[in-house]
Amino acid sequence: MTDTSGANKERNLEIARNEEAKQVAGSVRVSVSAIVAVVIVGGILFTLGWLALR
């Protein structure tokens, strides 16, 4: 019984590590998408402002 309990604990730890890695990857993906969106919107606003001053 102890052997299966230890195996289950190890399996649960591995699952937890995998879930943590997925969450980190998802957070990085969201952050990169947000930065790209800000750069695009900023570029559009800069271009519109520059054209308005011409």
UniProtKB/TrEMBL annotation:
Keyword Transmembrane: yes
Keyword Membrane found: yes
Transmembrane segments: 32-53
Keywords: Membrane, Transmembrane, Transmembrane helix
Name this protein carries in UniProt: Uncharacterized protein
